[in-house]
Amino acid sequence: QKEVEQNSGPLSVPEGAIASLNCTYSDRVSQSFFWYRQYSGKSPELIMSIYSNGDKEDGRFTAQLNKASQYVSLLIRDSQPSDSATYLCAVSENTGNQFYFGTGTSLTVIP
Amino acid sequence: GAVVSQHPSWVICKSGTSVKIECRSLDFQATTMFWYRQFPKQSLMLMATSNEGSKATYEQGVEKDKFLINHASLTLSTLTVTSAHPEDSSFYICSGTPNTGELFFGEGSRLTVL
């Protein structure tokens, strides 16, 4: 059984701070890694994809991947109240036929 | 990103009736689509993998005769909840993946069974 684990939180950070979200996965053949944001009552929205070890930056978001340690993280710089949501980590074997999701981390950014 | 559209967004039905939810990939062809269910404050649960032109693959514990999935074209998959009961009330979300390998979700359909 492939597992993707995240701390459920809640994680609270003050506005303007860096929010750090972590995810570990059990399957070494996983090749593609994703972060989704899900607002309450809405469906998940893809915010970052990462495929290679290292950092990938997109605006205020930075995804970090370490395949040797089997973890992927998401940093949100200059956190805003609008970033308050549940963040889902997902992994795939690159076939596009199966995706495995973590249970999500709830983030609250306090004004 | 790719666009997946679901309809209806909200549906309320009486117990014992059937409800159909449509999922369309608007700007890509989806050989495979995934159907998820999410109860309040819980994580996504994969219900089934829908394959164009063939039978869907259901996850363990999901009744295939109750949740009918049809994927007749590369842009349309449907989920029919048959003989719905209050315990079927949930948020149903479809998703598809274009050639990029990324998974994109529809807006979701909130079902309430009275």
**Poorly predicted ranges of chain B (pLDDT <50, ≥5 residues)?**
none
* Sheet of most strands of chain B: 7 strands, mixed
What proportion strand of chain B?
A: over 45%
Question: What's the helix-strand series of chain B?
Answer: EEEEEEEEEEE
User: What integer value in Å does the Rg of chain A equal?
Assistant: 13 Å
Structural class of chain B: mainly beta
| Estimated share of beta-strand residues of chain A | over 45%
| Most extensive interface, chain pair and sizes | A-B, 22 and 18 residues
Q: Indicate the mean pLDDT of chain B.
A: 95
Instruction: Work out the oligomeric state of the chains in this entry.
Output: heterodimer
Helix fraction bin of chain B = under 10%
Distance N to C terminus of chain A: 40 Å
Tell me, briefly, the overall form of chain A: globular
**Number of helical elements of chain B:** 0
What would a concise description of this structure say?
Chain A is mainly beta and 111 residues long. In chain A, 0% of the residues lie in helices and 55% in strands. Chain A starts with a strand and ends with a strand.
What features would you highlight for this structure?
heterodimer; A: 111 residues; mainly beta; six-stranded mixed β-sheet; five-stranded antiparallel β-sheet; 55% strand; B: 114 residues; seven-stranded mixed β-sheet; 11 strands; 0% helix; 51% strand; globular
Folded structure, characterized:
- The complex is a heterodimer of chains A (111) and B (114).
- Chain A has strands at 4-6, 11-14, 19-25, 32-38, 45-50, 54-58, 61-66, 71-76, 85-92, 99-101, 105-110.
- Chain A has 111 residues and is mainly beta.
- In chain A, the strands form 2 sheets. In chain A, strands 2, 4, 5, 9, 10 and 11 form a 6-stranded mixed beta sheet that branches. In chain A, strands 1-3-8-7-6 form a 5-stranded antiparallel beta sheet, with no helix packed on it.
- The mean pLDDT of chain A is 94.
- Chain B has strands spanning 4-7, 10-13, 19-25, 32-38, 45-51, 57-58, 67-73, 76-81, 90-96, 104-105, 109-113.
- Chain B is built from no helices and 11 strands.
- Chain B has 114 residues and is mostly beta strands.
- The A-B interface holds A 32, 34, 36, 41-46, 49, 88, 90, 92, 94, 96-99, 101-104 and B 1, 32, 34, 43-44, 49, 91, 93, 97, 99, 101-108.
